[in-house]
Design a protein that fits this description.
The protein is mainly beta. The chain contains two helices and 18 strands.
Length: 189
């Protein structure tokens, strides 16, 4: 059995991109065997600790893609599909605007104001056409378009809204829990 001792070891830490950190021993002199003999280089590799790295987990951003003709919104992480949901889109005269946007509002129990009459329905009211969750992604400075639930689930899959994306209440609840402000929303035919 060999007894090894390492002389003149220095611990170095290097910070790499993305917060990765590498610790290793440098300036290793060959280990000294009992009796003053020097061990071969292969013994140095066995005596030195393994290179250890700590890497920061980097996740790709979430994004949403709405396909109006298919009446679906798909949640992606990078290019990986996570889930697809059925939706209702804007009816004729109130079409959902096409383009690329960012989620600008996240509201639980949003109030709804009728775009024509100005009538207001409080958040949390079972008759509120927005349901319990709102993810706003488009505005002209006065009106907003976003994802929301509905008290009329049979409208999902149709062109029925004032431009918004209606979802089943359980689907918007799930999506709301995952989507932060700034998430990209792309609306296509």
């Amino acid at each position: 059995m060999l007894k090894l001792a390492v002389r003149q070891a220095k611990l170095l830490v290097a910070v790499l991109p993305l917060g990765a950190c590498v610790a290793f021993l440098s300036e290793l002199s060959p280990p000294v065997l009992t009796g003053g003999l020097t061990a071969p280089r292969s013994a140095v590799a066995q005596a030195a600790p393994k290179l250890q790295t700590a890497t920061k987990s980097v996740s790709l951003p979430l994004r949403l893609e709405i396909q109006l003709s298919q009446r679906r919104v798909t949640l992606y992480q990078g290019n990986t599909t996570l889930k697809s949901y059925p939706i209702a889109v804007g009816r004729p005269g109130w079409e959902t605007p096409k383009g690329t946007y960012k989620v600008q509002q996240r509201i639980q129990n949003p109030a709804w104001i009728h775009p024509m009459t100005g009538e207001k329905v409080k958040g949390g009211d079972p008759e509120n056409p927005l349901g319990n969750y709102w993810l706003g992604f488009w505005t002209d400075g006065r009106n907003w378009i976003g994802f929301h639930g509905t008290p009329t689930p049979k409208s999902v899959g149709t062109a029925a809204s004032h431009g918004c994306i209606r979802m089943y209440n359980q689907d918007i609840s799930e999506l709301f829990a995952k989507i932060p402000l700034g998430t990209e929303v792309t609306v296509r035919d």
